Amino acid sequence: MKSYKAVLLAALTAVLLGGQAVAADKLRIGTEGAYPPFNEIDNTGKAVGFDLDIAHALCEKMGAECSVVTSDWDGIIPALNTRRFDFLVASMSITEERQRAVDFTDPYYTNKLQFVAPKNSDFKVDKDYLKGKTIGAQRATIAGQWLEEDIGDLVNIRLYDTQENAYLDMASGRIDGVLADVFVQYEWLQSDAGSDFEFKGDPVFDDDKIGIAVRKGDPLRERLNKALKEIVEDGTYEKINAKYFPFSIY
Amino acid sequence: MSWAERWELIVRWAPMLWDGTLVTLQLVGIAVLVGLFFAIPLGLGRASRHWYIRAVPYSYIFFFRGTPLLLQLFLVYYGLSQFEVVRDSVLWPYLREPYWCALITMTLHTAAYIAEILRGAIQAVPPGEVEAARALGMSKRQALQHIILPRAIRIGLPAYGNEVILMLKASAVVYTVTLLDIMGVVRTLNARTYQYEMFFLIAGLIYLVITLLFTQLFKLVERWLKVDASRNR
Fold this sequence. Notes:
The complex is a heterodimer of chains A (250) and B (233). With 250 residues, chain A is an alpha/beta fold. Chain A is built from ten helices and twelve strands. Chain A has helices spanning 2-24, 50-62, 76-81, 96-99, 127-130, 142-151, 163-171, 182-190, 220-233, 236-244; strands at 26-31, 34-35, 39-41, 47-48, 65-70, 87-93, 103-104, 109-118, 134-138, 156-160, 177-181, 197-214. The longest helix of chain A is centred in the N-terminal third of the chain and has 23 residues, at 2-24. Chain A is elongated, with a radius of gyration of 23 Å. The radius of gyration of chain B is 21 Å and the shape is flat. The interface between A and B is medium-sized, with 16 and 14 residues.
């Protein structure tokens, strides 16, 4: 009788432990799904994009089986902390405020600001040229802030409510150039409206680091960092990058 | 954020808020004065007994009263600039500036309303007074100049004062074409300081104070023109 109990206990322990081991290899990726081309929902309802490609590559390196959970941007950090998913890959900027609520991995890409101007203009990113020029940006963006803080005394700044209006005014010649996130600019340059325009000069700002968020103190962070390093080193990252942008965003 | 920090922010950005207030005052002030000037022929035409004289002012007023100011502003600012003809024309140095676009739109917009106020006022002039003027041997023109218009202006003045205040508040849309009026400054400060409730509240106070000033100004003008006396028919 006793030995029967012992066997049962052993079996139960094995199942529990085994179950736990399997569970540890099942991870849930959290994302938003409304920020193309980084994360968006495709026609079949699946979340796709740069963020998802990176997340799946990381899962592969960690040997984990991953599923995807989407959440609204407003509630996305609470969703992580209430364990609706295990790590958040949603193009989230690493900021001090957020670091109080969650831990971030090393950055997996960097947001940069770069000027766009008409192809036929001699637009140059130097103080002599920019003096007295009129530059547009979207209000309440890093680009608008950068213009005001870094070259506010040099150029006339026009702040627009939407990015689209800034481009409209550049097309009609009211402003000499537009400063915005390099990804936003790139998307527009690909469109018909943007065909007569191009990037000018080097990116002027590259401090906006984008990281993967995990719950505070979660050892998953170290595993993700290790996997991130691996995909950067073995060229997987570069391949995913090239699928979306012809320039490196790391 | 403590009160001291708030106060420090207000002091720091007060010059920018003041500049914004001046932009708003300038736009509204010029628009309602030039608008009044345009409104006189429009209002007279609108009050005409002949349909072919009425038709043009009627269509003009119908368009500008029937569509939102924001839409008119976008049509002038973003719409006109789409045409190369406009961009190559002599008007482009003006039309490329958001300030001029806002001023033109606001003036055309308010002219329609003022014309309608004027039409109502002209038609409210007691017919007996007009007949009396004609009976005294005044020509149509003389009657218009000495009797009808002075009476109509006094009848329409309170409504005109109301229109000025409405334009003041409507002018808040010009920030959408990058102008730094009161609203534009406040939106920019919000993006910079994240003190939304404080700066929106300050904007509200500025608009209230200007409204108060306009109200007092019109009271003075009404007293000067003896609007009250002319009402006691």
